[in-house]
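Working notes for the structural subgroup meeting. M.R. asked for a predicted model of this chain before we commit to crystallization trials. I am recording the input and output together here so anyone reviewing the notebook later can reproduce the run.

Input as submitted:
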Amino acid sequence: MKNETVKEYNLKDKFIAIFWLLVLTFLWGLTFPIQKLVLNEEISPFLYNAIRFWIATFLSALVFGKSDWIRGTVLGVVMAIAYATQTWGLTITTSTKSGFITSLYIVIVPFFSYIIELEKVRKLQVLGFLGALIGMYLLSGGISGYNFGDFLTTICGIMYALHVVLITKFSRQVNEYSLLTPQFFTVALLNTLFNVFYHGNGNKWSFSVTAIFVATFTAITATIVAIIIQAKYQKVVGSNVSALIFVGEPLFAMVLSVLILKEHLTNSQIVGGLLMVASIILGVLNISERQDGWIFAKKKQE
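Returned structure, recorded in token form:
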């Protein structure tokens, strides 16, 4: 692609990227228990998403300049489906289970990464993805009682894997800030439309002050700041390494769910958490290597 350039990053750049991507996983993990508290108040999940992303749209439009509406809208459609299915599913399933099923996108990323970017998975990364899959299963306590909320969250995982790879690709083509406003606008608009057809308990347009507060908090931290970090640093280490770093998301979701929601852990969940930590380490071990597969793919496209 004409606007896409190959750039080499040094080891310092990659360690900085890893640090910020880990910060990102903490912000995402924090959203599970906090949003669970709000959604228990029976606010429509689509209205909640709409409020969150209208706030993000306004703030990003205020702060950042020119937008890329084509790429941003594509990202927005994928993200809208991901967030809508995740938030809706969270009203039906548990916070820990939602965190696990959503995190399955981590093992789906390599498939999209190969199809879209021709980026191959390395040997240590294969071990990392296998360890992450087993660890996430143990962390969740299994997936017995798979329900409609879990199905919705599975769709979210697939869409989020696609979103991760598309962000890496698009941020290599254009300035990352140009992807924000149109992406958030699309998510806000679609969730507003989804809410028109949503049939939930009570008034689907009602919301509390607490919901506004949490929506504002997540709009700033887990939306604007998170997407900036993704767009700025995923391209430094690649989609596959980023996905293994994102294994930290369900870990943070687990710890924060225990602290905030008072959920309890079993021995198998602790073992699962340790396996996931090992998976992150395996993913990071390759950062000193050149992204030869990605560079070859780009040269082939040119």
